[in-house]
Specification:
Blueprint lengths: L1 E2 L2 E2 L7 E5 L6 H18 L3 E4 L18 H15 L3 E4 L6 H5 L4 E4 L7 H8 L5 E4 L9 H9 L6 E5 L2 E2 L5 E2 L2 H7 L5 E4 L5 E2 L8 E2 L4 H11 L3 E7 L13 E2 L3 H15 L5 H5 L1
Parallel strand pairs: 3-4, 3-14, 4-5, 5-6, 6-7, 7-8, 8-11, 11-14, 14-15
Antiparallel strand pairs: 1-2, 9-10, 12-13
Length: 277
């Protein structure tokens, strides 16, 4: 499929979705987007800036949720103008479709809402590509039903994003087999940062195993994916949201270089699993 003017898929170069979990300030958004855009340009890969204006699924009602719709959309519009990259944001049940679609290039639906038929079909009709976060409670093959719901009301413009499966209390695992299974439904994106999250692991906030981000990112690219999603922050320990599972911005260049090199190797020949299935 086409995504922000570039061909993407299992036979196309890797693309990257990256940014802070939640928008904190215009200065932070510009710093992160500008840093990664420069790296992506040198690597000749598509880069989409990610930032949330509202995160409704917080562990505590007292947790930081973002700057809100109006201010958040202004920040995203400024990123597009100043840095020249497409932008992605999360939406929720009460998010106004037309207002968001007028600014945002790629819509992301939350994992917890992926089974909500009306919600998913509403955003499918928005006319924007949709990055569908796979529910932590959903098998890979069940996500075929989610994509089918959306295809029933709109042209195919959907991505499936693996973000880990609930494994006991406050823990997630990533099953690399699921990445190959979901390819039959749509291009697959691997979320390298939420898969290392420990949901609610700090009691009133989520924890994370930051050191495992590069481990799982390399594994996913080795398995064969269309894109990688990751959250990054100049000072993760000071981030207002999801700092424990955010990659330090200063470390992203080396990781992306490794992932792009690995992606080229994996995609240099037809994937053997396609012949064996």
């Amino acid at each position: 499929m086409k995504l922000c003017g570039r061909d993407i898929g299992i036979d196309q170069p890797l693309f990257i979705i990256a940014g802070p979990d939640t928008l904190e300030s215009q200065e932070l958004a510009i710093e992160v987007a500008g840093t990664i855009a420069e790296i992506a340009k040198k690597l000749d890969i598509l880069y989409i800036f990610k930032g949330s204006f509202d995160k409704a699924n917080r562990s505590s009602h007292e947790s930081y949720r973002g700057p809100g719709l109006e201010e958040g959309l202004k920040m995203m519009e400024n990123v597009k103008k100043q840095i020249g990259v497409p932008v992605l944001t999360d939406v929720h049940e009460d998010t106004p479709v037309d207002e968001v679609a007028a600014v945002i290039d790629v819509i992301q639906t939350p994992a917890f809402l992926c089974r909500q038929t009306n919600f998913m079909q509403k955003w499918a009709r928005s006319g924007r590509p949709i990055n569908v976060k796979k529910g932590q409670f959903m098998s890979p093959w069940e996500m075929g039903n989610v994509i089918a719901k959306m295809k029933a009301v709109a042209p195919d413009q959907f991505l499936l994003c693996e973000r880990g499966f609930s494994f006991g209390y406050n823990n997630l695992v990533a099953d690399m087999r699921g990445l190959a299974i979901m390819r039959k439904y749509s291009p697959v994106v691997f979320d390298a940062t939420h898969t290392v999250q420990l949901p609610g692991g700090q009691g009133n906030a989520s924890g994370g195993m930051r050191e495992m981000i590069p481990v799982l990112a390399r594994a996913a690219v080795g398995a064969g994916v269309s894109g990688v999603f990751m959250e990054t922050h100049p000072k993760p320990d000071e981030a207002l949201c999801d700092g424990p599972n955010s990659l330090p911005l200063a470390k992203i260049k080396g990781l992306l270089e490794s992932l792009v090199a690995l992606d080229k190797l994996v995609k240099s020949k037809p994937l053997l699993e396609s012949e064996l299935s």
